Amino acid sequence: MNPLSADIQIPFPSDHEAEIAYGSLSVDKEPKRGGVSKTMTFSHNVLNVHFQAQEARMLRVSINSFFEHLKLVVETMERFGPPR
């Protein structure tokens, strides 16, 4: 079976906010037993995420989990104001 993949680009208002999101989200590694790999980079104000999995269900679960974490990071940045 060929691996499934998804690429997501998330723009932020500034380069610094993309870097903060990258730093916060890159510590959450995918469990090895899940069969999903996640690669993140950022360029300027865009966070780029690449997911790869053998099963569609595991890819969906991983992406959903990522967006839950992303939402928390964005809400935290909004709550504490713009980065300095």
UniProtKB/TrEMBL annotation:
Transmembrane feature ranges: none
Subcellular location, record wording: Cytoplasm; Nucleus
Keywords assigned: Cytoplasm, Nucleus, tRNA processing
Any single GO CC term annotated in Swiss-Prot or TrEMBL for this entry: EKC/KEOPS complex
Pfam families recorded: Pcc1
Biological process, per Gene Ontology: tRNA processing; tRNA threonylcarbamoyladenosine metabolic process
Protein family per UniProt: Belongs to the CTAG/PCC1 family.
Function statement: Component of the EKC/KEOPS complex that is required for the formation of a threonylcarbamoyl group on adenosine at position 37 (t(6)A37) in tRNAs that read codons beginning with adenine. The complex is probably involved in the transfer of the threonylcarbamoyl moiety of threonylcarbamoyl-AMP (TC-AMP) to the N6 group of A37. LAGE3 functions as a dimerization module for the complex.
The protein's name in its UniProt record: L antigen family member 3
Gene name, Swiss-Prot/TrEMBL: 106078349
